[in-house]
């Protein structure tokens, strides 16, 4: 009979139990840590930055043009992938149309075709009118309207990330009214 007051020799059974427990903790951490990081990353919001695009007076009236800029969330190693863009049209009297360049279907960059007065998506044939409304093809809605403001005569756009159907950039507090622009008569 062993004396309980003496230090016990680790038995094979105890050692296996400890090993099993340690392996369980390691396996849980291997799965749980990345999962927690993913979930918190999905929930965490990037700060919303205002990106200066150009002086208000430098935008040609009634011409839709693509303006590119570095996405505020870009990393130094992103290269061109860290760039984003907006189609901007000056309407006069300090009014603008500002659209994210990403198609509302799966995010491909759309192209403005002035001769047709349409935005075309090369990926699946989505088409939008000049005011960003959906014209045809698979996109479930019009182009994403980017919040914008004018600070000291400079047009700034709010560009935190790629817009999606779940997060459209269109915050109620900064929703932009989009009147129809007078058409150029040539
Ligand atoms: Fe534009 Fe599909 S991504 S139509």
Q: Largest beta sheet, briefly? A: 4 strands, antiparallel
What is the end-to-end distance?
A: 108 Å
Helix share of residues? 10-25%
Give the ordered list of helices and strands: HEEEEEEEEEE
Instruction: Give the low-confidence spans.
Output: 173-186
Rg from Cα: 27 Å
Q: Which molecules are bound besides the chains?
A: FE2/S2 (inorganic) cluster
Strand order of the largest sheet: 5-6-7-8
**Beta fraction of the residues?**
25-35%
Q: Give the overall form.
A: elongated
Q: Number of DSSP strands?
A: 10
Q: Which structural class do you get from the secondary structure elements?
A: alpha+beta
Number of helices: 1
Question: What do the pLDDT scores average to?
Answer: 82
Describe this protein's structure.
The chain is an alpha+beta fold and 186 residues long. The chain contains one helix and ten strands; from the N terminus they run αββββββββββ. It has one helix at residues 12-43; strands spanning 50-55, 64-70, 83-92, 95-100, 111-113, 118-120, 127-129, 134-136, 148-151, 154-158. FE2/S2 (inorganic) cluster binds at residues 103, 105-106, 108, 121, 123-126, 137-139.
């Amino acid at each position: 009979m062993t004396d309980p007051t003496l230090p016990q020799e680790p038995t094979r059974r105890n050692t296996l139990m400890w090993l099993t427990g340690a392996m369980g903790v390691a396996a849980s951490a291997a799965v749980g840590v990345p999962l927690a990081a993913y979930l918190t990353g999905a929930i965490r919001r990037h700060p919303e930055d205002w990106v200066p695009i150009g002086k208000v007076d430098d935008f040609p009236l009634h011409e839709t043009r693509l303006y590119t800029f570095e996405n505020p969330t870009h990393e130094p190693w992103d290269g061109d992938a860290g760039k984003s863009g907006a189609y901007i049209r000056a309407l006069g009297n300090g009014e603008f149309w500002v659209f994210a360049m990403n198609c509302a279907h799966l995010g491909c960059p759309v192209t403005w075709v002035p001769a047709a007065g349409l935005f075309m998506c090369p990926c699946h044939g989505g088409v939008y009118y000049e005011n960003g409304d959906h014209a045809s093809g698979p996109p479930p809605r019009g182009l994403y309207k980017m919040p914008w403001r004018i600070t000291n005569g400079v047009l700034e756009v709010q560009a935190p990330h790629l817009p999606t159907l779940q997060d459209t950039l269109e915050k109620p507090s900064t929703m932009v009214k989009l009147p129809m622009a007078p058409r150029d008569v040539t």
